[in-house]
TrEMBL record:
Assigned keywords, A-Z: Oxidoreductase
Pfam families, per database record: adh_short_C2
Source species, domain of life: Bacteria
Family: Belongs to the short-chain dehydrogenases/reductases (SDR) family.
GO molecular-function terms, A-Z: oxidoreductase activity
Keyword Oxidoreductase: yes
Species this protein is from: Edaphobacillus lindanitolerans
Taxonomic lineage of the native organism: Bacteria, Bacillati, Bacillota, Bacilli, Bacillales
Protein name (database record): 3alpha(Or 20beta)-hydroxysteroid dehydrogenase
GO BP terms: bile acid metabolic process
NCBIfam families: PRK07231.1 (NF005559)
Length: 244
């Protein structure tokens, strides 16, 4: 229960969904965590539930100024961050025919540019400490094709992870990407496409969706010192889908 004891983490998009699961896991393992999100109600509620080891900071991840504020607030509350989980992201299931330029630029800013800004903001602090772990949440669609906009940005996160790892690893900063497949979250199990997704799950080699905690266990491993020799790598958790 102390795999992250004494460590300070920032989790973007941490107020709900998979981000909230990562936050809970980190707290269970002894970390102090700063949750960032635009969802103030959800973020404040989760911080209140988890207690003194958690702070919520409202953040637009596409804003460099907001990133500077998050670093300041993290250092003020807990000290310099050891871990950054670039979790915030959106999906958009539109064809090229239907997607507007504004749609495309929005998903690029949130899914791709925000990851660059997060790495750029946290790297100087981690450089000074001589250590750090940055975990970029991509997708199985960062390895294989999918919807326009979503797929390209998730491929970009994979590439940025490798580029950043080459520059930052000599400074003691590790950078890795996580590539989840179909995760059993309320968005999946309660949405309009629930029957379609259930049917699709039958064709996953492991014949089921992943549980959110399974993804968080992988993120925890990358945040901890147990993954001390892993950097610039893709960690796939998709039940075998991309092996097909």
């Amino acid at each position: 229960m102390n795999r992250l004891k004494g460590k300070v983490a920032i989790v973007t998009g941490g107020a709900q969904g998979m981000g909230a699961t990562h936050v809970r896991k980190f707290v269970e393992e002894g970390a102090n965590v700063v949750i960032t999100d635009l969802n103030e109600e959800g973020g404040m509620k989760l911080a209140e539930e988890l207690g003194a080891s958690v702070r919520f900071v409202r953040q637009d991840v596409t804003s460099a100024a907001d990133w500077e504020s998050v670093i300041r607030e993290t250092e003020k509350a807990f000290g310099p961050p050891d871990i950054l989980v670039n979790n915030a992201g959106i999906s958009m299931s539109k064809s090229i025919f239907d997607m507007t330029e504004a749609d495309y630029r929005k998903i690029v800013d949130i899914n791709q540019v925000s990851v660059f800004l997060g790495i750029k903001a946290v790297a100087p602090v981690m450089k000074e400490a001589g250590r750090g772990s940055i975990i970029n949440i991509s997708s199985m669609n960062g390895l294989v094709g999918g919807a326009p906009g979503y797929t390209d940005t998730k491929f970009a996160v994979r590439g940025l992870t490798k580029a950043a790892a080459l520059q930052l690893s000599p400074l003691g900063i590790r950078v890795n990407s996580v590539h989840p497949g179909v995760i059993e979250t309320p968005m999946v199990t309660q949405g309009d496409a629930v029957e379609t997704i259930k049917e699709f799950s039958k064709h996953i080699p492991m014949r089921r969706m992943a549980q959110p905690e399974e993804v968080s266990d992988l993120v925890l491993f990358l945040a901890s010192d147990e993954s001390g020799y892993s950097t610039g790598s893709e960690f796939v958790i998709d039940g075998g889908l991309t092996a097909m």
